[in-house]
Specification:
alpha/beta, nine-stranded mixed beta sheet, 6 helices, globular
Length: about 300
């Protein structure tokens, strides 16, 4: 399995990239998506930055837009370009978390268990909401994408048995996020048999609540996309040899699962540190897989 890495930022207008094996592309998601050929990707699995929850300290980052509509509109534009890149029978699996209003407090205190929680800047409370309101970001984004032409096919609850504790005493501790299954067309490829559940010794169609623990990644200092969460999305949404896209690649978990499942991947990452982290992680994993293959032959 060959892995092709490209390390450069792309201008707003660029020639289309020729897809040759798996690749990681560094730069702004929207600009790079514009360079990818139309209808070239079978499946998209991704988790964009959440609004107002983390400062990545890099110009052009998503998630610290001054207003919630600006954040939603920016993601709608990105996913509109994703729709062009996706094949007509392709699927989008979108993980997005929620947050509470800041009460116009422009900072957030550090947390010993979660150092990345600390922020020196936070967006103001969205218009029409109150301090302590749950914002409802996932559904606001899902409905905006639906309005933009996506088919909203399913909402999946990612239940986290090992959810991070919270100090709150006036509401339940949050222990779930959403994954939205969306399609470009009314009819699409979905291999339900590949992700069926075992229930009392018999197999049944997968349900919409997935109990999956978070997985810390020491190099990133925050919880990353668990492989167990990604695996059913890739199995159901693609076939071996297909391209799987993640426009917010992070530490490269989508690529790790693609390597295991014989899919090709395209990862887009803005942050240079995460880009290099993904390159190193996937290169090491590929070498391990090659050694294992040799040992078994």
């Amino acid at each position: 399995m060959s892995v092709f890495f490209v390390k450069e930022s792309f201008p707003e207008v660029a020639e289309k990239i020729i897809l040759i094996g798996s690749m990681i592309l560094r730069g702004d998601a929207l600009n790079i998506l514009r360079t990818l050929p139309s209808a070239s990707v079978q499946c998209v699995v991704t988790s964009p930055p959440y609004w107002g929850l983390r400062d990545y300290n890099i110009e052009g980052q998503i998630g610290l837009e001054p207003t919630l509509p600006q954040f939603i509109n920016r993601l709608v534009a990105i996913f509109n370009e994703v729709k062009r890149v996706l094949k007509d029978d392709g699927l989008l699996w979108l993980n997005i978390g929620d947050s509470y209003t800041s009460g116009n407090r422009g900072w957030r205190a550090p947390d010993k268990k979660n150092p990345a929680r600390a922020m020196n800047v936070r967006p103001d409370t969205p218009e029409g909401l109150k301090p302590k309101d749950l914002i409802g970001v996932p559904w606001r984004l899902a409905f905006a994408l639906q309005q933009d032409g996506w088919y909203l096919r399913s909402d999946i609850i990612w239940n986290k048995p090992n959810a991070m504790p919270e100090s709150v005493k006036d509401r339940p501790t949050r222990a779930h996020e959403y994954i939205f299954l969306m399609s470009k067309s009314e009819k699409y490829y979905y291999n339900y048999e590949s992700v069926m559940e075992i229930n009392g010794g018999s197999r049944r169609n997968r349900r919409t609540v997935w109990d999956i623990c978070t997985q810390p990644f020491p190099e990133a200092h925050f919880a990353t996309f668990p492989s167990e969460l990604v695996d059913p999305c890739i199995l159901a949404g693609s076939k071996p040899g297909d391209y799987v896209l993640d426009p917010f690649f992070g530490s490269g978990t989508i690529g790790m699962v693609c390597q295991k499942r014989q899919r090709k991947y395209i990862g887009i990452e803005l942050h240079p540190d995460y880009f290099l982290m993904a390159v190193n992680r996937l290169s090491a994993n590929e070498k391990q897989m090659d050694l294992l293959e040799v040992a078994q032959s």
